[in-house]
Design goal:
Layout: H1 2-29, E1 37-38, E2 46-50, E3 53-59, E4 63-70, E5 112-118, E6 125-131, E7 143-144, E8 146-148, E9 170-171, E10 180-182, E11 184-185, H2 187-205, H3 211-221, H4 254-258, H5 261-288, H6 294-301, H7 304-312, E12 320-322, E13 333-335, H8 336-343, H9 346-354, H10 368-374, H11 378-388, H12 397-400, H13 406-416, H14 420-432, H15 436-446, H16 454-471, H17 479-486, H18 492-505, H19 508-517, H20 530-551, H21 566-571, H22 575-583, E14 591-592, E15 595-596, H23 597-610, H24 619-622, H25 624-642
Antiparallel strand pairs: 1-9, 2-3, 3-4, 4-5, 5-6, 6-7, 6-11, 8-10, 12-13, 14-15
Helix pairs in contact: 1-2, 1-5, 6-7, 6-8, 8-9, 8-10, 10-11, 11-13, 14-15, 14-16, 15-17, 16-17, 16-18, 16-19, 17-19, 18-19, 18-20, 20-22, 22-25
Amino acid sequence: MRRLVFVPILLLALGLCTSLLVAWAGALLDRSAWPDTLLTGEPVGSRTEMRGWVVEHGRDRTLTWRTFIPLSLWDRPPDRSATVQLPAWSVGHQLEDQPGPFAPARERTRDMAWEASAGWPMRCVRAVRHAGPTQLVLPGEFVRGGVEAEAYAWPLPHEVGRPEAASVVRPWVTHWRRPIVPLRPMPVGLLVNTVVFAAVWFVALSPLLALRPLRRWRRARKNRCAGCGHARDGLPNGAPCPECGRARDERTTTTELLTARAPVLGAALALVLVVTASTALTLHRSMAVDRLPPLHRAAAVGDLVEVERLLAAGASASVVHRRRGGLPGALTDTTTLEWAAARGHAAVVERLLDAGAPTTADGWGRGPLAMAIRHGHDAIARRLLDELAAGPLPIDLASMLVYASDDTRARALVILGDHPFVLGSAASSAMSANDPAFAQGLAERGLTEDPRWPADVLDGAVRADAAAWRWHERKDLGLTRRMLAIGPAPSVEGIVPLVESAIEEGALPALDALLASQPGLTIESLHIEGEEVARATVRGGPAMLARLLELGVDPNTPARRGFNALLPAALEADANAVALLLNAGVDPTLEEDDQTLRAWLLVRAERAAGHPNHNPHFPSQTDPDAFARIIDLLKAAEARWRAGEGGADAAGTPGGP
């Protein structure tokens, strides 16, 4: 009876270990287990909006992941109409509301969060990680319910996405960003998975049950007792075994079959193997997480007593902690003062400064001052500014001011002085961060000192206007107009690249403002190519294309890669842009190397289909429906052009009205 009870317990233990092992292995091997990826195109799964947060959600075979990023001016807009369903344990319930994409940068948090649950068939373990600016200097501190893994050691790094990859997501493995192995149990999923894998192990080990009947049959052939193997020679038929008392034809019970030595030993051996693999995996992951030196740790948690003790014992306040695999001077280097400043421990900051902790920034422009400003610790930021006043300032202090409070800004500007380059850099960052009031104050302070840098500020304004116009429902921020109204307009030579940038980004309001500031600007001086015409059409829509035609831009101007604007529009897989260009009079019969654009696209689509890995980002591979519509549009337009009827809006033309 004991053995009969022991077998289910053994199978359940085996199922539990297997559930955890499958979840951990899946979290390490599944592509979306790597949250720190460069999104080179459409994200895996859905992209919705929640209280000013962009929520990206995806589900793979063994992993469900979710990221929370503050919605800013530069983000591709999510689906605002979609609902966001978060589990009860989700960190999304704890995130504060964000002011939206058009609020100044300092009103938006710089944090982000990532969470994942792993397991199969149900998710049975989970983990949560907070990130943000402090992720660069607080590695691993925000992980709850999991451990970080070595992204560059095991498993082997995934392929790095190429810059031109415009339609897929590929993990970008870096030595300071590591995937998380979830460890916190989810009771319901863990119970279900345990039962499922216990049943799987029972089926897998069931062939061992045939060993007992096989042995019984072999002993019967040799006239031996089926139970103990004692010889029955000389015994009358039907007599029990004199050794164990078992009858000759007595059948093996189910209990004896299930508790036979072979199945039990097999299950025990399998359990040992699974437990060993799980333990080895856990130990390897745990060992892969860098441990902070004692003084760094004390500074991070604000333990002033421990900081005093360590300094008195001879610890150096200037020591740099470098994460495993980090390069000298890279973002993996952290100092004690950075930890204390990022966490807002003013008393620890003061003690570390007294102990000689360095306040200068590293080669990346990051340092204690940057961390204090980014996290809104104004008192610490002003204290560090006083320390830095007599020495070299961080190279990107001007750009950091867009996140600072008014008091910190005023103090920093006193130290920075009225250098036009510094003021221009700060004003340009302010424009990009949608803070025109700060930019105007900087411009009024130093705009007339040097007429060269207004173009840099205007460039930030144009890019911000372009982001709002392109991504956010054609919203006109008017930053370019406001910047032009503050001070003297740039020269014609200085404004030409800004106009070209506005055209390429499809920013119609910025383009109109720039052209209005230079009435004598001619279209011939802009050097617009078919590539820019196509991008303006893709990003700016019909209104932008109509404005270019009104300015006298030739829609048939050649593109850098041959043909005309139809080629880059087709490579963007934007059938609507192709139709707009055809309506504008772009010639679809233009030939390169005796091929029309349609023939050129079909040849390369055939090559991409025959060799998917050779060109996986060709539009026929990434969006077959849009590519098919583009081919139909070009085919019909070619026929109409040759017949002298031209235009995609003619009756019977695919994509036309």
